[in-house]
Design goal:
Keywords: Signal
Protein name: T9SS type A sorting domain-containing protein
Number of strands: 68
Helix content: under 10%
Shape: globular
Low-confidence stretches: 1-19
InterPro entries: PorZ_N, WD40/YVTN_repeat-like_dom_sf
Structural class: mainly beta
Organism: Chryseobacterium edaphi
Largest sheet: 5 strands, mixed
Strand content: over 45%
Pfam families: PorZ_N_b_propeller (PF21544)
Length: 753
Amino acid sequence: MKKLLISLGILASVQFVSAQNISSKKWADLFSYNNVLAVKEDNGKVVAATENGIFYYTVSTGEITKLSKANGLHEVKIAAFDYNPQTKIGLVGYQNGALDVITPQGITYVVDIPIAVGYNGSKKINHISISGDKAVVSVGYGVSIFDLKKKEFGDSAFFVSGGVYQASNEATIKDNKVFSVTNTGLKTHALNTTFPVFSTWTTELPGNFTQIDSETVVSFASPTTTYIYNNGTSTALSQVFGNVNDVVVNADNIVITDAARIYSYNTNGTFAGSVTVGEACNTATKVGSKIYLGTILSGLKSEDNIAYKPDGPYFNYAYKMRIFNENQLLVSTGSRVNNFNEGFNNPKNPGFYYFTGTEWVYPSYFVGSSTIFNVLDAVADPNNLSEVFFTNYNTAPGFGVYKMKYNSSSKDFDFVKRYELDAANPYMNRPVGFAYDDQNNLFASLAFAGTDSATPGFAYYDRASDNFLMKYALGIISNGIQQPIYHDNKFWTPLPRSIDFLVYDTKKTQSLSDDTFTVLSESNGLPSGSLAVAFDKSNDAWIGTYGGLRILPNAAAEINNDPQLEPIVIEQGNIPEELFRDSQVLQIEVDAGDQKWVSIDGGGVYYLSATGERTIQHFTKENSPLPTNTVTDIKVDKKTGKVYFVTYDGIVTYQGDVADVTSNFGNVLVYPNPVVYAQFKGKVTIKGLAEKTNIRITDVAGNIVHSAVARTGYYEWDLNNQKGTRVASGIYFVLMTNEDASDKATAKIAVVN
């Protein structure tokens, strides 16, 4: 039986200590663990490194634990990994040149590799090889030695000749000597005082070599030939390979990962067998009597073709998300490049992912398809949740809207139909995003619509004819359009490639002839093209643009009155300043407490008070598990308070404090409780409150020490009394009533100073 546990590291007992502690129990990842880059053995167990995290598979129990930026690592986009089972130390290298040192005592973040003067190339860590307490790190300029005990870099050898730097593809340490494979040959040097001087390195064998490893012997490879090195002699194996992806040397065998098969040799070069799992692999190693393979698309596999991995999406690419039917998810993977809905050149053609509520499903329709997919939105039909519509926004055959049906027996999607949307050619009527009205009628926003490529439009799905009918916003100039939001009988739609915002009114009739369009523009106070829109409990429209944030109060009532949009003005050092001025607002989401999550391109995510005048949280990739500072979508599950952050580098979640806020109390919870000052110095959170909650906190004698009114479904008490000083140790009672006193709740807080 296979079990999945979310743990705090490679070892169950690991404690995270780092100068930059960016994770907490509130965070979790929804990363893909399919693309396994490195596989290491740990006394009969398997450690696998993937693009965005590491997982640890215990062969005897089937237990899987995972480690990512959500619970300990400091980056995503892993490029290299090695692990020493004797010392229990792992070293993770990232594409940006940073390192994480994983030890039983914690994880240490090493911000950057040493850079040679004049080197302007990539900082990507190409390869890591650990030997004892040292690791050799291969990068674009050569190699560096990393001291695992001191957690710092030692000597570096810059492979530079005539001002030209040469990369170390991979390197290893054997018998106090470094072996490095480069595009010009196998190069070696003893770990001594002249190690940094490139002219003192020896070229053992000229050639283009890409892979190397060592334990009992040194083995290295070109794309077609693998060698065993022994006392200055390099002997080629007789096998001619198609394309060697990796060479792994264990105590008594050499495992070679080729394009199609995994080959095993004894350390003397004797062939010992081969295996295949019918798909491409990055790497493989032997654990006990079995070969374990790191596949590109299926996670870790044993040689008998059984897959082991944490569940997650097929790839990490993600653009927009839909939550429906409680906890089911649809994730689209299209992209916006240079502010346009482009991105047709993703070679993996990711399509969309579906989470059933218990497991992730990837449609086989996308695997190996020759159609170019740029899926900007995917949505389930409310009348039949097994049917999914998705947009394919491209300029090649296969554009249009697709309908697919989920088959629960096969756990796959069956293709139903493609709708070309009456397009004269692939450049016209490009579908972007969907919205349903309150009668479950489906509408899709269209860019480059009609016969005029500068016109936006909509496609209405006519269920009777099983076809889409077109409605063009004639006279309105904009090549771009975003996902519409249906609110108060209208479709509110950002137009990113003009200084406009479009409101589409269908008059709630089946006829398209009486539909009308209203445009908010520069004269209404719109600073630039619009990107996102959301509505709060006051029916105010929050509009995100390329140049900041604008509010339309009482939007549905005012839209036809030529209204003026309002910025949010805050004071910074007694100086009035417009919130998010000149910033690209990518997405806005309102939680159950009417507070706002706002994504800023390159600036992370802000969590704002209901009015927007106070910042509650500001999450960035530097201070949180966010994979990037560009978050393309935010979704809040208002029943649970869970917040989903969607990025091109993967999805992470944050457990918020606001969930299912109504006029009455929910499940009132106080945490932390007890509050021990030596362990916690922050505010105590009381969650599960009513929309408006009157709070009185008393001591055991009945004296009121604090009172407040909460309007967001939760409240944070700083443990100060009404005089502003910290309360004494003891038990405190929280007495709460809702707005009309028809519901009440109580709680106790223990304070230990």
